[in-house]
Specification:
single chain, Rossmann fold, 7-stranded parallel sheet, alpha/beta, 6-stranded parallel sheet
Length: 352
């Protein structure tokens, strides 16, 4: 029997809840492929703590994320590279970030190894040279992709049949992890998931006017967002509502989302976790969020602008939704199908 070694790339090890879930779900999918032996993950050493949460028997080895020579040597002795979750090909964060993943992909393909993009999307890509670079990766016959939004899928599939449309699979890991969790909906509680804190004062006032009495304020990278969380919590306290203190324990964050009456989120996985648990949500309008959410749930148009628009009306519409149980079950069904598609793609890419 042949055994394979793979390199797993992603924005892992930075205590970002969305990326942590993508990492754990990708490991779960890889673990179901009986021929994969070693998984090399370029990441900071602190990923070791998260890796311990994975119950599977994979041989996971963390390598230096910041040493390109180490990464390229690891690719050389591996059989495939997997990009596991996210919009890694984007230059909105920085051009350096785009080039980091591009040169990793390019080296993989130059070695004649398959590049497998799981739960990925493309963009925003603002630099025209980067767009050309992205095209060379997409158009390679060795590149395979399971894409999480329709725009990325349509773009990639113009010149290649190796791409499939599916949903973002981040919450898939929770299906086993939280299967016995009892959801206790608190109609007086809301969750705010922060990234920039735009319009948060307005949101707090509206929630109070609509009968909310306590608010859980969190960021998915709490160590980076401490000041923002603190200032937002202060606004909640000034309004006379109870503030539920944030936690760095990702299970606590997820359970608070699960039990909320409504979730207001600036982050993608705040929306997807809400959908997973059937909790009404609204999200801050943005290219990535808009594309992934509209590709995941039909006819759910409850986003708000960072600058203007009737936020009160949008929150009111969301709070009038009794539950999203049907949409939640549909998403969970898609997650299971996505897992199967990912396994099939791994087998195809490895010529099994």
């Amino acid at each position: 029997m042949l055994f394979y070694d793979v390199v797993l790339m992603g924005y892992y090890g930075y205590s970002n809840l969305g990326d942590d879930l993508l990492f754990l779900t990708t490991l779960e999918i890889i673990s179901k492929h009986s021929s994969i032996r070693n998984v090399f993950v370029p990441a900071p050493k602190r990923l070791e703590q998260l890796r311990k949460l994975f119950p599977g028997n994979l041989n996971i080895k963390i390598v230096n994320r910041y040493n390109p020579i180490t990464i390229y040597r690891t690719i050389n002795k591996s059989d495939a590279t997997i990009f596991g979750g996210g919009n890694l090909f984007q230059d909105e964060t920085s051009n350096r970030s785009f080039l980091y993943y591009y040169f990793t992909a390019k080296h993989t393909l130059s070695m004649g190894h398959p590049l497998i993009l799981l739960s990925q999307g493309f963009g925003p890509v603002r630099n025209s040279k980067n767009l050309q670079r992205l095209d060379t990766v997409i158009n390679s016959p060795l590149t395979y992709g399971l894409l999480r939004d329709r725009n990325s899928f349509h773009y990639a599939s113009k010149n290649s049949d190796n791409f499939t449309f599916s949903v973002d699979y981040g919450p898939l890991f929770l299906m086993n992890e939280l299967e016995n969790v009892k959801q206790i909906r608190d109609n007086k509680m809301a969750t705010i998931v922060l990234k920039t804190g735009v319009r948060v004062n307005e949101i707090v006032k509206i929630l109070k006017d609509k009968g909310i009495e306590k608010i859980f304020v969190t960021g998915f990278q709490n160590h980076r967002e401490e000041a923002l969380i603190e200032s937002s919590s202060l606004q909640v306290q000034k309004s006379g509502m109870k503030i539920l203190r944030t936690s760095n324990n990702w299970k606590d964050i997820i359970l608070n989302i699960c039990n909320s009456r409504i979730v207001i989120t600036e982050r993608l996985h705040g929306a997807l976790l809400s959908l997973f648990f059937g909790v009404p949500f609204i999200w801050l309008k943005g290219k990535k969020l808009d594309e992934v959410i509209s590709s995941t749930i039909d006819n759910y148009k409850l986003s708000y602008s960072s600058e203007k628009g009737d936020l009160s009306e949008i929150i009111d519409k969301a709070m009038k939704i009794e539950d999203l149980e049907e949409a939640s079950e549909k998403y969970k069904t898609h997650l299971k199908k996505t897992k199967q598609k990912a396994l099939e793609m791994l087998r195809d890419a490895l010529n099994e």
